[in-house]
Protein: DUF2630 family protein
Amino acid sequence: MGQHTTDTIVLHHIEGLVAEEKELYEKGEISDADKQRLGKINVELDRCWDLLRQRRALREFGRNPDDAEVRSAKTVENYQG
Structure:
């Protein structure tokens, strides 16, 4: 995602990833390459949802949602809520 990201752009990216994920699962037999891609999709989805939550929280508290930053996969995947 680029310099000027909106909630709509993030949601469209999420929709694209979900569509790709669905296509991979619909193939039936999943190759090792497909498994790797699914893993990457899941991490990217987590990062997108995290960004969207950040944007919404900033907006809710009267701050600029553009201050939200895409966090690293390591940060998002190791988050302990």
Summary: DSSP finds three helices and no strands in the chain.
